[in-house]
Protein: Protein phosphatase inhibitor 2
Amino acid sequence: QWDEMNIMMTYHPEDKDYGHMKINEPPTPYNKLKDPDGEEGGGPSCDPISDDEPETLLNIYCCFSTVKKKEFEEHRKYHYNEFAQVKLARKLI
Structure:
């Protein structure tokens, strides 16, 4: 009833890989960080933080965040100034 050999030749040829191709790539090179002293690790040092540093960092952060907030509000105010946009649109018409 079925020609099994014809089906095998049509749908399963020997040279067909069905998209499952193996790509051989060289391994990615990885260089460990080394100190000039020759010590391994290379990460940041873990020095204890003094008592006054957190307050200083907090003050710097607060000043920075208020400046960023004011800049953001200024940009938003300029962007969403609908009254000026309508006025400009009427002038252009």
